[in-house]
Write a structure and sequence with these properties.
Largest sheet of chain A: 6 strands, mixed
Number of helices of chain B: 12
Order of helices and strands of chain A: EEEHEEHEHHHEHEHEEHHH
Low-confidence stretches of chain A: none
Number of helices of chain A: 10
Helix content of chain A: 40-55%
Number of strands of chain B: 6
CATH topology of chain A: Rossmann fold
Largest sheet of chain B: 4 strands, mixed
Number of domains of chain A: 1
Radius of gyration of chain A: 18 Å
Mean pLDDT of chain A: 88
Shape of chain B: elongated
Oligomer: heterodimer
Low-confidence stretches of chain B: none
Number of domains of chain B: 2
Order of helices and strands of chain B: EEEHEEHEHHHHHHHHHH
Strand order of the largest sheet of chain A: 6-7-8-3-9-10
Largest interface: A-B, 36 and 30 residues
CATH architecture of chain A: 3-Layer(aba) Sandwich
CATH superfamily of chain A: P-loop containing nucleotide triphosphate hydrolases
Distance between the termini of chain A: 33 Å
Amino acid sequence: MDDAIRIRGLVTRFGDKTIHDGLDLDVRRGEVLGVVGGSGSGKSVLLRTIIGLNRAAAGRIEVLGEEVTRLSPEELRRIEMRWGVLFQDGALFSSLTVTQNIQVPLKEHLDLPQRLMDEIAAIKIAMVGLPPDAGAKMPSELSGGMRKRAGLARALALDPELLFLDEPTSGLDPIGAAEFDALLRDMQRSLRLTVFMVTHDLDSLFGICDRVAALVDKRLKIGTIAELMRDPHPWIQAYFAGPRGRAAAAGSAAAG
Amino acid sequence: MTSLLAAEEAGGVLRLAARGRWTVAAAAELDRVLRAIEARAPRRVSFDLAALEAIDTAGAWLLLRTRDRLGALGAEVRIERLAPDYGPLVRQVEEGGAPVMVPAKKRPGVIADFGESIEEMAKKAVNLVGFVGLVSEAVWRTVRQPSRLRWTSFVSHMEKTGVDALPIVGLLSFLIGLVFAYQGADQLRQFGAEIYTVNLLGVSILRELGVLLTAVLVAGRSGSAFTAQIGTMKVNEEIDAMRTLGLDPIEVLVLPRLFALAITLPLLTFYANVMGLFGGAVMSYFELGIGFPTFLRQLKWFLPGWTFWLGVLKAPFFAAIIVVCGCYEGLRAARSAESVGRLTTTSVVEAIFLVIVVDAAFSIVFSVLRI
């Protein structure tokens, strides 16, 4: 089983509006896949469909070797332990402190002594680059960048194999976004994560993604950036060869 | 000794052969086993990780924690044959250093808590007075220049707070009238004074119950909606946008609601009175055999004509309370959805509290005036 995610012939609809029509996708283990597409093209819907928040109208979705659309709630719970999700603004539970947020999945899925859970939460807080006193804070006391880091710490609480990220750098300043990219790259390497990342950020794509999937015409075109840039599709050309795409490419080439 | 670790002592060295998966799922057991090893206080320890199937951050942390603690006790600890794949992970956990436990903020004691809430209340009372001032000033401006009123919004709020509330206000008033008549009749029958049930109903519904019930219902229905609407706009930065466009949020948001409710609440009160008396009349007919004409004649003869006005007179005041509380709390919203929820509750509780306090004040005034 080499693929972390394998999708065949996915169709999703909202009412009579078709979002994905016969979409195929393979995400290899250990790679960082960036998903791009115009606003409203269904990137986030794809992510939500894979993790089971939306129902697909047709098609097969296999995650970590299991067909998620066919699992019983019990089996789904077991597989949910093996993936982590970072929503756009962190989606931290607003009534819990950061430490308690990180401990939610630990409490829900495992039976660990409180002292050990406190230690694990503190490690995760250090790993995502938050200061130690962030743990006792409420989400409303954190800045946007810190909320994302805290959300990442919660997503990584159970040391998942697969990480879903929904626009991880949106709303961050360029310095914060670059730091977050570097953090993701570090974590991905040391924890050997497979990452499925929906993003608009060209710098993230050039900086940390192994392959890119472009959502055009209700399907995905997948390849390295160099491969995609050769694709004649007008949207892909406009995206990568536009002024911002060229600037990001130049930046990544300069950074080596 | 466990599926995670095999220990054997040879030549003064405690050799610990790791097995299985050192992951968070097994962390509780691993924690226990490694603490037991610490308790043995060995002099020389060697971890052999060759047979380890998997290790994650929790496992790496427990390994490093045991190494550091044994080291602190003066033991010599070696970690051997870690698969190169896991090197970066262990290094990353090591770089994070020992986790720093920051104790959660202590909750203040009961007395400090009480003091804080009193202080909070005093501050809010002052702010509320300031808000009433702002609104009064805006009302004065609008009264002098009625074209300033947002007429569309005003009519729409009349519909939402008034017309849409008719079914619930009507039904509840009818039921209260029914219940009141039944209870009153039951007591008065013991003195053979059943007919005075009508007086009891008339006085209590027209003077107090009709208007109070309506105000409480509207506070729950519309006051909460005001806070939620305005609070959501605050979260969305719509209020800030309004200010930058030169619009006064009080004029645009508060006044149409204030004028709308000041008109609909008295009308709703009238409607509640009619429905309450109707409920009482129905119960009197079935319970006491008092027909409708007798019921109405009794009401007309024994109740002074201004009784009705005593109730309806209070309605605009209650309307002002509901609108001021609802809008004030809405405008206080911070930039989070959570605060909107909390403030909505606060606004309804506050509005109902003040309505009842003001109602009590009216009773005192009326009793001094002997009406």
